[in-house]
Give the backbone structure.
Amino acid sequence: MAGVRSLTVRAWYTTVQEVHTDGGPVADTPLVKAAVAAVVRNPYAGRWSESLNELVEPSGELAKELVARCLAALGGRDAESCGKGAIVGVAGEQEHGVACLTTPFGDAMREGIGGNGWVTSATKVAAAGAALDVPLAYKKALFVREFYDAITVAVPDGPRPGEIAVVAAMATRGRVHHRIGGLAKADAVGDGLR
């Protein structure tokens, strides 16, 4: 897929992490985290624009493809948590990354994984190869503490100055050794927060 609507995708990158233990006993069910980045051309690189609609409007379609690829990277497992992020090349602004991650993107992500919660995010401007820690949270209730986590994403050759690396991230469960209390998944009411 070369483009998603009016966004031109130069490359796709996938990261998968499988955690069986984090210092304690081996988990019965491993934690699998995945992130997919689409490196897209930034139509606003090097120029000011009051409107960022060229990024906002097609972001929902981009999110659908990112979600599909991220779910595939989980190997058929259900996504229990999610997050989103963007690294903007140095000819752009942080706001360009935020424009890629607004309501159309969040709605497509929630629909794609059966969530209704607030989708956590992180954005920054950086040179090619920079890492971004994409925060993860439970897909139905933000306050379920066992899901507070992150996955690190880096694109070795991007984003180039006139590009944006747009990221969707997911995990199959909470942290393998969560034990600090807080709202349990079983007690969440699924209102997006609690």
Helices lie at 53-56, 59-73, 94-99, 103-113. The CA atoms of residues 45 and 92 lie 5 Å apart.
